[in-house]
Amino acid sequence: MASMIRSAVSIVPWRLRGAIRSMPGIAQAQRWLLDRTLNGAEFEHLVDAGPAKGVRFWIRMPDDKGIWTGTYEQSFAERIAAATPKGGVAFDIGGWHGFFTGVMAAQGASKVVVFEPLPDNIERLRKLVALNPKLPIQLNEMALGEEEGETTLVIMPDTSMAKLANSDFQPDAHGQTRITVRIASIDGLVSSGALPPPQLMKLDVEGAEMMVLRGADTVLRTHKPIIFSEVHSSALLAEVRPFLEERGYKVTLIDEDPAAAARRDVFQIQAKAG
Question: Which residue range forms the structural domain that includes residue 33?
Answer without folding.
Answer: 1-69
